[in-house]
Amino acid sequence: MHPPTDSSRRAPSLPHRRALGLPHRQALSLSKGCVLSLSKGPLLLTLLLALLLTALPAAAAARHDQGERVEVTGVVTDEAGQPLPEVRVVLEASRAVFSFRQFHRVLRDTRRVAGVSDAKGQFTLTWPWDGYFNDFQLVAGVPVRTPNGERFEELARTDVSARIKQSNPLVVTLAVQNAEFVRTLRAFLASVKSDDERRVYQQMGKPDRVEDRGRERTWWYFEQGRAYRFRDGTMVEVKPFDPVEKL
């Protein structure tokens, strides 16, 4: 009776023999005991490059210990470099991997920490370091109410993946390129004063356009096909029309 044969001592399987001996087939070892046979050299090269790109984020070792509190601090400014207060700042941490099914880099298991810039546009966020995450994005924006709830209007985004691994604190300047959107939104919110206006705003959110004619104001919601007309803050008319889709 022969003793059991160790799997590591078995003769090479057909794919392995082809990978070792036949010129018209190539093989890429993906894991222990698993070989992917490929018929064309360019595809093999593409997969090797994909694996290399997947490994790149881990190439630069982080200076931080697991669980260490890493600070991300800085200032939010407009196009002219002036500070923007009360802007939401979010640090998005994800695991970046290469998806062979989608054949591109994808982000998974995203976690977020958020704060708000102060009167001087300054902010500070704290992230408990976790070596699992290798992609870090810093985002600035403002919440905007819509008929379907609140959405986050993104105003600036910067990739801090490399810098956050080497710095504590990490200092970043977020320059918003559409500060006029923020000013327009805040001016509108400051103008909402009556009970009728607040009720419509809670239901419909920020209008697409506001017509101001002294004592009368009209809020236009193009996608919903509604126009709300107010006189001295009291709603006097709701005018329906054919909805208009945004381009």
Q: Mind describing the biggest β-sheet?
A: 4 strands, antiparallel
Give me the side-by-side strand order of the main sheet: 5-4-7-8
Low-confidence stretches: 4-12, 14-40, 54-59
What is the succession of H and E elements? HEEHEEEEEEHEHHEEEE
Q: Helices and strands: which structural class?
A: alpha+beta
Instruction: Determine the CATH topology of the largest domain.
Output: Immunoglobulin-like
Chain-averaged pLDDT: 82
What count of helical segments does DSSP give? 5
Kindly, what is the distance between the CA atoms of the first and last residues, rounded to a whole number of angstroms? 78 Å
CATH superfamily of the largest domain: Carboxypeptidase-like, regulatory domain
Taken as a percent bin, the fraction of beta residues is 35-45%
The portion of residues assigned to helices is 10-25%
**Whole-number radius of gyration?**
28 Å
Q: CATH class of the largest domain, please?
A: Mainly Beta
